[in-house]
Design brief:
alpha+beta, 4-stranded antiparallel sheet, 7 strands, elongated
């Protein structure tokens, strides 16, 4: 037999083995990479390298991951089989509506309407925590500046509500 035929047979056998192994692995994980938080951290870090991740919360079905960032911002990642689409949630650009089930909520993203959906978490505590992030992120930057500035017209000292005019 010629060496070309031998190498062709070896190549075909290796390709068949590779196909068999990938099918075997995908059968063990029918959901693909949806619950792989390590991949999610890498993808978000690649999309937004200047943002520091504080914590991640995965939805019950693994289709979405909500990201809490170090400077009290929030991010969102939607699983698209082998990769994630990553979004930073800008203050005031998301609407959250409660569901009858306390384990989830419906979200309307004003900047990314294709991501609008209902998201359910594994526990009520996790859903409440993510909702609080989004609520904190909902306050616009201008509103935060107003809250942080002391009132200039108010006199210094203690004011008793009974004596206020």
């Amino acid at each position: 037999m010629s060496p070309v035929i031998v190498w062709s047979i070896i190549f075909v056998l290796l390709m068949g083995l590779a196909y068999y192994v990938t099918r075997l692995v995908s059968r063990d994980r029918p959901d693909g990479n949806r619950h792989d938080t390590g991949l999610a951290i890498l993808e978000f870090g690649r999309a937004f390298p200047q943002e520091a991740i504080r914590s991640l919360h995965v939805t019950a079905d693994g289709d979405a991951i909500f990201v809490r960032l170090h400077d009290n911002k929030a991010g969102f990642m939607k699983s698209n089989r082998s990769h994630y689409s990553c979004h930073l949630i800008e203050p005031g650009r998301v609407r959250v509506m409660p569901l009858t089930n306390a384990k989830g909520f419906a979200i309307e993203f004003l900047d990314a309407p294709t991501q609008n959906a209902t998201y359910t978490f594994s526990s009520e505590k996790e859903a409440a925590e993510v909702a609080l992030w989004l609520l904190d992120n909902y306050v616009s930057v201008a509103d935060r500046d107003i809250e942080e500035q002391p009132a200039k017209d108010m006199p210094a000292g203690d004011i008793n509500p009974d004596r206020a005019k």
